[in-house]
Design goal:
alpha/beta; five-stranded parallel sheet; 8 helices; about 10% strand
Length: about 210
């Protein structure tokens, strides 16, 4: 697996292969192509150079665009979730990292990418999926005792910066990050905005704070 950015010709070919599969509403083929690409280039490059641009390319205004978008999203999700899974159903230790979608946030493909990228590094995470209420987030932190939390927001409707900052201040030893395009307001300390997948991977792999 390479760790360098994908060259322009490889990106163009990848876009064509993935988009043609999505146009055929073939989510399984989307997942297969993504798995092939991830094995060569790694998840961070695949996400930043292929998945994100293709997802942004579909505005989802017409019925056809919506169907293609759903096939693309499902294929991306399946491909990322299968990548580097241990055979026999064994899971990696969570490594003190908790991932979740913000309250009422239905989309969190970026967290699936982060989880897959962590598996490439031999690390696991506790991924609680989309739309986790703030009360449930508090409960999860008390139960799982992570050192790092990454909360995904796709739209400004769910990216409520003041709630994330309030949450972070309630857990002074916890590193709290907002990820995704929904955090349009600046995040005040101690919360931090992660803008790329490589930055998110580095944040999750960093040593925990000492109390």
């Amino acid at each position: 697996m390479l760790t360098d950015p994908m060259p322009a010709d490889a990106v163009e070919t990848a876009h064509k292969r993935v988009f043609l599969a999505a146009e055929d509403l073939d989510g399984n083929r989307v997942a297969t192509v993504l798995l092939e690409l991830a094995d060569v280039w790694g998840v961070p490059a695949l996400w930043e150079q292929v998945c994100r641009p293709l997802l942004a390319r579909l505005p989802g205004r017409t019925a056809t665009e919506i169907a293609i978008e759903h096939a693309l999203c499902e294929g991306v999700r399946v491909g990322l979730d299968v990548h580097r899974r241990e055979p026999g159903g064994r899971s990696l230790p969570t490594g003190g990292v908790l991932l979740a979608g913000a309250e009422q946030e239905a989309h969190c493909l970026g967290l699936h990418a982060l989880a897959a990228a962590l598996r490439e590094q031999g690390r696991g995470c506790l991924h609680l999926g989309p739309a986790l209420p703030w009360s449930a987030m508090n409960s999860a932190v008390y139960r799982a005792r992570p050192h790092t939390v990454v909360l995904w927001s796709q739209t400004p409707v769910t990216g409520r910066a003041y709630r994330l900052v309030r949450f972070a201040r309630g857990f002074p030893l916890l590193r709290v990050y907002g990820a995704g395009p929904g955090w349009i307001e600046p995040l005040a300390a101690p919360a931090t905005h992660l803008r790329t997948l490589p930055a998110a991977v580095a944040a999750c792999l960093a040593a925990p704070r000492q109390g």
